[in-house]
Amino acid sequence: MEAILTLSASITVYSHNNQFCKLGKATRRDVQSLVVQCSRKDEKINGLISETSQTGSEKDDGTGILQSTNKGVEMTHNDIWKLFREAQQNILYLNKQRLMAIEELKKTQLEKQLLIDRLEHLEVEQQDTAIKSPMSEFNNPSVCGELLLRIDSMVLTGIIDVKEASDFRSFLVQNKVSIGDVFSRIHEKSDIELLAEIRYFFDRSKRNRFHIVHICAEMAPVVSVGPLGSYVTGLSNALQKKGDLVEVILPKYASSNLDEVKGLRKIDAEFFSYFNGHWHGNRVWTGVVCDVGVTFIEPLQYSFFSREMIYGYPDDYERFTYFSRASLDYILKSGKQPDVLHIHNWETAIVGPLFWDIYVDKGLESTRILFSCHEFSSQCLEHPDKLTLCGLDPSRLHRHDRLQDNTKKHLVNILKGGVVYSNEVVIMSSIHSKGKIIRGSSHGLEPTLAIHKEKISVAPYGFDSSVWNSSTDKFLPANYSADDLRGKAICKVALQQRFSLSGQTSAVVVGCICAEITVTDLENLKAAIWLANRKGAQFVCIGTNNLSSVNAALESFQKEIKGDSVRFIDTHDEALSHLVLAGSDIMLCTSFHDPTMQIPFKAIKYGSAPVALTLSKDEFSGHSRDPDFKTTWTSQYILSAFGNMSLSQAIDQIRKTSDWKLKMRDGMAKDFSWDSECLDVHLDAYTSIKSL
Q1: Which pLDDT does position 145 carry in this prediction?
Q2: Which GO BP terms sit in this record (predicted)?
């Protein structure tokens, strides 16, 4: 106790209203005159203990602290201990309150987390419902497509007139993002019930978007024999993600994969189209393909599309001219007023002159034409008199600045008509510039393309990134990304095991996926395999064109290769294609211009280096001074990173692990899907058209 009294003590105790008590400095010498007083507004403080011994005279020094005087009463040892105990009790009480507050905070945080978990669970359930029920209110593109087709049905059956249908379509275009929250289970409702709902919500706020109608010969997965099918589907989906309204009009082929069409229904009304001097009836079928509304036109008097093949018949001109004219008649009959009619290749290029010569003044004054071309080698040359089949005047069109062929001047060139009679032209090529196409790949159309070059742009192909994505690919034994490449090593081992190759992780694996192999490709492939074998690499090739001569040559060649490091599989398997892309270090490509399979760009996304079987200096040469030879960023990247790389160089570089991984990560981080540069080019073209 003696020691305690010799210490200088100053104790602060906080009261309920944040004011405080102070014990003055106490020493043994002046303890008899020490008086302690709490400064506070209330004499009673809830939960705090504070007592004061106050006898004798006291003086306030103006600070709220009462100072003792010489007349104070002597303080005993018990008084000091009492003050310590009071302070201690107050501290314990405050600590208790603090602990209670902490517990309350933890409880609130737990409740918050439970609420967040519940919301996430509900979102997952909502997504699962949308997947299981494609026509549900959560699947907006599908709902929009179905509504659009139902409006067509209402017009053709006479429930509404063309003007009201046009207003409804504008409403859908401008409100497409939100209609899924308004309309549900529309496939279960009659036209009358659905019409009442549409009219009720017709006065909602509107948003300006593009309304695009594709008139085309292909759309994947219903019918696709070339790059056009996947292009129409990929671009349409990318546009709808941006809020635009897209429709597709197709012939109803007998060979169509109609199992891929959701909600396929026949409209119980015919519409008529002009052909060969008469009006002919057509049946209309509607449905949804990949969330895009699709109309199928079926001629009733002609068997143009009830055949095994899509193309390759002597009357192809008659078949697709009929379809083109019927599509325009259908658009007019149903009251559509799209911003853009998007036509493709020569098969629907005749829509251009038909539109401007016959249809533009029939309620389609605000509609414009975009023509996309995937190849110039197929142009369709016909005698001018055949233009009369669809109602066109040969004397007006058989001119050098219109449809007359540049070389065979006694014929009309249907593909040329698509270029001349469109407002914008998009040429599809993943590696070539506009100048390169015009001057080297136009197949006689160079004068025409040069005249119209200001309205020409080039767009790269894309691919479906939801299917071809190494981080989510369901076919792979392990997923991986640019940030974490560990799964790629697992895929490589799985590929080696699948083909009974030695499981050396250090071995370089060269893959090759071919849709078909020409005689030239076969010789180049043999040379590449010899090279890879000499450098100790393993080789896997799948998906030949099943030609017996090619397969026999490959089997014979495999026997010539010493060792057990080469494998050929003569069938194309979807799951195996994914594994070859993921498990290979290098992918041999017959060409970097691969519009159908897009192997070079898929290889980059899977962390494999694309290498061309043959290096063409002419193909990769640049013309930087000529603005027409400026390429897309997609083309610039692949040509600069891989265009001049031989197989030997690639094998050597891959053994420099650090540099190679950086290069692969850089490529994997780029976006080559339909939603990227391909979409941007088309949006620019649509915007340019709409401003005309």
Answers
A1: 79
A2: starch biosynthetic process
Q: Count Cβ neighbours within 10 Å for each residue of 34-60 and write b for 16 or more, e otherwise.
A: bbbbbebeeeebeebebeeeeeeeeee
The tally of domains found in the chain comes to 4
Domain residues for 147? Answer: 134-207
The DSSP result for 208-261, as a single string, is: ---EEEEE-S-BTTTB-SSHHHHHHHHHHHHHHHTT-EEEEEEE--TT--GGG-
Write down the pLDDT at residue 193. 79
What integer pLDDT is reported at residue 166 of this predicted model? 85
Tokens representing residue 173 in the block: 């275009």
Pairing between β-strand 368-373 and β-strand 340-344 as defined by DSSP bridges: parallel
Which residue shows structure tokens 């208790």?
96
- Do 524 and 382 belong to one domain? no
Residues 76 and 170 in one domain: no
Burial code of 544-562, b = ≥16 C-beta within 10 A, e = fewer?
A: beeeeebeebbeebeeeee
Per-10-residue mean pLDDT of the chain, 692 residues long, equals 38 38 39 40 41 42 44 63 81 81 73 61 51 40 78 88 84 63 72 79 60 97 94 96 93 92 92 94 95 96 93 96 97 94 98 97 94 94 97 96 96 97 95 88 92 94 92 96 92 92 84 79 84 89 66 73 78 88 93 88 95 66 59 87 89 83 91 94 93 78
Q: Is residue 68 part of a domain?
A: yes
pLDDT at 125: 53
The torsion angle over the Cα atoms of residues 542, 546, 552 and 556, rounded to 10 degrees, is -10
User: Domain for residue 610, yes or no?
Assistant: yes
For residue 508, tell me if it sits in a domain. Answer: yes
52 close to 80: Cβ distance less than 8 angstroms: no
Q: Among 175, 207, 239, which residue terminates a domain?
A: 207
Element (H, E) at 110: helix 77-132
Q: What is the pLDDT of residue 408?
A: 96
Q: 3-class SS at 399?
A: coil
| End-of-domain residue from the set 207, 229, 246 | 207
Residues 183 and 256 in one domain: no
CA–CA distance, 668 with 603 (Å, rounded to integer): 9
Other Cβ atoms closer than 10 A to 294: 25
Residue at 105 is within a domain: no
User: Where is 538: in which H helix or E strand?
Assistant: strand 538-542
* Nearest one of 371, 352, 350 to 360, comparing CA atoms: 352
Cβ proximity of 503 and 532 under 8 Å? no
- Other C-beta atoms lying within 10 Å of the C-beta of residue 63: 9
Whether 425 and 503 share a structural domain: no
Residue 261 is given by DSSP the state -
Dihedral of CA atoms 393, 395, 397, 400 in degrees, nearest 10, equals: 170
pLDDT at 549: 61
| Coil, helix or strand at residue 510 | strand
> Do residues 344 and 408 share a domain?
yes
Q: Omega into 627 within 30° of 0, i.e. cis? A: no
User: Are residue 257 and residue 389 in the same domain, yes or no?
Assistant: yes
Q: Tell me the CATH number at 262.
A: 3.40.50.2000
Report the alpha-carbon distance of residue 679 to residue 212 in Å, rounded. 13
